[in-house]
């Protein structure tokens, strides 16, 4: 289960030490921890990290396969998480120490910056392989954060990007050794904690109006 | 005239061995060959190539100069070709062995990937020089596929990009020797033939909603 | 105060030798000089330059602090300047010999190309630091001209980019020694003067429809 720690001005949200798939309970937990981060005042920043082999593998397809009647409501809640992180009024950094797949990769893109382990682990959007098209909201999020060339390749080919590949493609902002991933993310977060505040929230919200509108379309999450 | 061959899972559409301008008969021919590609089932991919000095020089301005009354209908049919290739439910690769100009360059951008001859031939959008502004649909297509910096330079200056320049600008994905252009495109296509299917079609259609809408606006193709 | 000189086919607009903030009188002066540039005929291009330590520091916050009641009208006039330069029917090059901050940086992005001094001076969007969120029009302009990664970093972190940093991030097209900044801009402008004309104006206007619409929204400049 996700946990939250505070190191001076930086909150560290640890997504867990499993595949960290988005089970509804996990989503509720993360949402509650983000409430705590938002309620805090003054300079602060968020690092989202995880422990073990996975940052996150995204949607909980096992749960979904037995709760098909709740698919729409479930996707709405995932979209809400993306929209919330994308517009958080503080700097956010994802520390990708392990595999970052599908909705896990999209969650990483909702952060301001990404640090990825250089020597192991993949960032990948496997949707074209697993026959789950991106929702319009997901598509808008990914395309808003990546260059046209990278968005196209990653979304149509399910390419698995190692850390150096992801850096070259502009998917992540830094690649680092295993031990340095979280520390590098913390450094970036600390150095930008003073930016927190409603102005930054407004800046991000205005930058991503189309993506946020698509992600917040609760009536029609599948387009 | 265009021809179609199949090499295992890869269809090769050869645009011809002339300037390969978009005469209405040529457009109808290409459309029919794409029908054949779409009707096929299972893993498959498309390589669009040509023979000789030109990939394509784009609109058939000679024909257009004597059929001004059909300009609107003609541009609609060119837009339809772009929209069709842009949303084809399989991986598409353009093998640019020769000059790729104007609407020929736009057709190349409607493909998923581009391989360009490294040592000879230019990719160029000469519209600013020949006093033919991009239609809104063309503009949307080009801007959806290129970085803002490259789209701006290529659209406002009519710069002729050699293979290495085009690679550096992110216009093409690979530059290769003359002999290797088509083979490189075939390799990319073969390696991604398994992605073919309606999911990939949906992914592309959702990624390019604004460009596809502009290209499919039959009432007002000139904006 | 701004001045205008003509060197053969190239107009040089010098923004001044102070901080070159956008006082209403300065805006009116620049607008009048741009009228002169637009009225000219035949091949021509525009270089926007300045003298001294600053290209421009942007909005005149001193004036604004004593004219709060005219804030809306003032921002509309700044938006109009951006929209006008962004759609000018000739090639425009900004020669950034000194600090280029906030709305000064946005003005530079409204030009087709930017040449920046390599060894000194910063290009910076400090809005996140000074608690002035970008208006929707400003946000649209910046995001239309920069890659998603660069737009995000520059808009959320107030990073100060030196010339080489700005070149690497694709903010400017060239970095040059102090003495060479203006000459490099003049060379680019001269080489592209023949592109001037209504076709180029239409091309730019169609490329930037969303940004131009946001910048020309006089009823609601603050979103």
UniProtKB/TrEMBL annotation, chains A, B, C:
Presence of the UniProt keyword DNA repair in the record: no
One MF term in the entry's GO annotations: delta(3)-delta(2)-enoyl-CoA isomerase activity
Q: Which key words are in the record?
A: Isomerase, Lipid metabolism
Q: What is the superkingdom listed in this entry's lineage?
A: Bacteria
Gene Ontology BP, a term: fatty acid beta-oxidation
InterPro entries tied to this protein: ClpP/crotonase-like_dom_sf, Enoyl-CoA_hydra/iso
Protein name from the UniProt record? Enoyl-CoA hydratase/isomerase family protein
Q: What organism is listed for this UniProt entry? A: Amycolatopsis rhizosphaerae
């Amino acid at each position: 289960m996700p946990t939250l720690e505070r190191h001076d001005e930086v909150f560290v949200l640890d997504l867990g030490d499993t595949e960290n798939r988005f089970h509804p309970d996990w989503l509720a937990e993360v949402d509650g921890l983000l409430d705590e981060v938002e309620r805090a005042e003054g300079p602060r920043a968020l690092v989202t990290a995880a422990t073990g082999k996975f940052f996150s593998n995204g949607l909980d397809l096992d749960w979904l396969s037995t709760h098909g009647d709740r698919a729409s409501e479930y996707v709405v809640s995932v979209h809400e998480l993306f929209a919330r992180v994308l517009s958080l009024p503080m700097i956010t950094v994802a520390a990708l120490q392990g595999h970052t797949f599908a909705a896990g990769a999209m969650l990483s893109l909702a952060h301001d910056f990404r640090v990825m382990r250089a020597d192991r682990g993949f960032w990948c959007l496997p949707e074209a392989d697993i026959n789950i098209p991106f929702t319009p909201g997901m598509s808008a999020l990914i395309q808003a954060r990546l260059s046209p060339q990278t968005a196209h390749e990653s979304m149509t080919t399910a390419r698995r990007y190692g850390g150096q590949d992801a850096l070259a493609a502009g998917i992540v902002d830094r690649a680092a050794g295993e031990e340095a991933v979280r520390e590098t993310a913390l450094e970036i977060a600390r150095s930008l904690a003073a930016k927190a505040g409603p102005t930054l929230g407004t800046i991000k919200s205005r930058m991503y109006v189309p993506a946020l509108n698509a992600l917040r379309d609760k009536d029609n999450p599948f387009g």
